[in-house]
Amino acid sequence: MTSQPILAPAAVRVTRARGGGRPLRRNLTGWLFLAPAIALIGVFTITPFAQAILLSFQSWDGVSPDTPWVGLANYEFIAGDVVFWASMRNVLFFGVVGFFLGNGIALGMALAVNRITRGKTFFRTVFYLPGVLSVVVVGLLFSFILAPGSGVLNRVLETLGLGTLAQNWLGDPAVALPAVAAVFIWFHWGFGFLLFLAGLQDVPKELYEAAELDGAGPWTTFRSITWPHLAPVTSIVSLLTLLAALQIFGTVQVLTNGGPGYHTMVPTLAIYNEAFVNWRYGSAAAMSVVFGGALVLLSVFQLAITGWRSRR
Amino acid sequence: MTITIGSDQQSTRSLTTARPSGDRGPRPKPPHRRRRIRPDQVGLYGLLVVAALTALLPLLWMLSGSLQSLTELLSNDSLLPASPQWANYVTAWVQGDLGTYLRNSVVYTGCAVVGILVVSSLAGYALARLDFAGKGVFTVVILAVMIIPAPAMFLAQYKLLISLGLTNNPVGYILILITSGIPMSTLIMRSFFVSQPRDLEEAASLDGAGPVRTFFSVILPLARPGLAAVAVIQGLGAWNEYLMALVIFDDNALMPIQRGLTAFTSGDTPQQQILLAATTISIVPVVVFYLLAQRHIVKGIGAGAIK
Question: What global pTM score does this model have?
Answer without folding.
Answer: 0.84
